[in-house]
Amino acid sequence: MSEVPVSTSPRWAGGDRAEPPRTGNELETLSAFLDWHRETLALKCADVPAAQLSARLVEPSGISLHGLVRHLAGVERWWFRIQFAQEDVPMLYYSDDDPDQDFDDLGGDFAAALETWRAECARSREIVAAAASLDDTGIRHSTGEPISLRWVMFNLLAEYARHNGHADMLRERIDGATGT
């Protein structure tokens, strides 16, 4: 019998990410995995020279670390605040005339974008904490159908997993750093 590897991917060096629990209820597990992915994004952006944060290094794609942070701040706001909690707040980095400004308009300061993203994550955590259950619902604006907090959290997990893969490719192009 062959030896089973401890891990199939190298761990990201540095940072202080809490490992998601191996046991726990659904809310604890979803919240921990979502926070793990949020912290992964922050780690992929840490210690990157300012000039490289907005660099579009995976052509022909227009993604950059700066754009990913802006995009995910908007995603947090859209799903947790606007769709689920029905808060009347403006969209971030989006307009009907310029729907891709999260990735295209990178003239702003990355530190400010990171702070906006962190604030949106904090507000999302507050919304989750205030919910009575993962079965609580908001209203999906495009269809008028109810969406559960469970669905929103799973959707965000998929969004972060996809974009953390993009962040990993960008970081590898910047300085060769890789890892999960």
Say which CATH homologous superfamily is assigned: dinb family like domain
Largest sheet: 2 strands, antiparallel
Number of domains: 1
Our count of helices gives 6
CATH architecture: Up-down Bundle
Order of helices and strands: HHHHHEEH
Tell me the fraction of residues in β-strands, as a range: under 5%
Task: Specify the overall morphology.
Answer: globular
Describe the strand arrangement of the main beta sheet, using strand numbers.
1-2
Broad structural category: mainly alpha
Approximate helicity band? 40-55%
The CA-CA distance between the termini, in Å, is 27 Å
Output the CATH class name.
Answer: Mainly Alpha
- Report the radius of gyration as a whole number of Å: 17 Å
Low-confidence stretches: none
CATH fold-level topology: Four Helix Bundle (Hemerythrin (Met), subunit A)
Arithmetic mean of pLDDT: 90
Number of strands: 2
Concise account of the structure shown:
Residues 1-10 have a biased composition (Polar residues). With 180 residues, the protein is mostly helical.
